[in-house]
Amino acid sequence: MNTRKNFMPISAASFCIILAIISGCKKDADTDSWAETNDIAIIAYKSNPENGKQYLNIIYENVGHETYSKIKYQLFIHTGVKTDTVEKVIVPTKVLLPKEKRLVPRNIGEEPATWDDVKVGKIWVVKDAK
Hints:
With 130 residues, this protein is α+β, with helices and mostly antiparallel strands. It has one helix and seven strands; from the N terminus they run αβββββββ. The strands form two sheets. The chain has a four-stranded antiparallel β-sheet, with no helix packed on it. β4 (68-79) and β5 (82-90) form a beta hairpin. Mean pLDDT is 84; it is low at 24-28.
């Protein structure tokens, strides 16, 4: 019976620590100040076939005069008569400077593009705090 008495405070303390870690992680994501912009151009398209498969390629370019640390964008993916909306975030390894153009690297194990068409919707950015 002594084991249970000692176990309860440890598990309650562990629960509190885990809860503090989770709530601390959420604060970082919530502090980002996203603003809609027209200063970023994004092109989404199917790649040329590689081993018989095509993949989604994303090219993004800073056409404005600001520097950005994060970019969020909407993709409208059309398959037959069905349209899906997906939001994706780009966190560049280096700050995106004015007039810079980059290709989003493909993830290992990324699924091939089986959709018919893709369009880019709204674009939001987090400005770099110098």
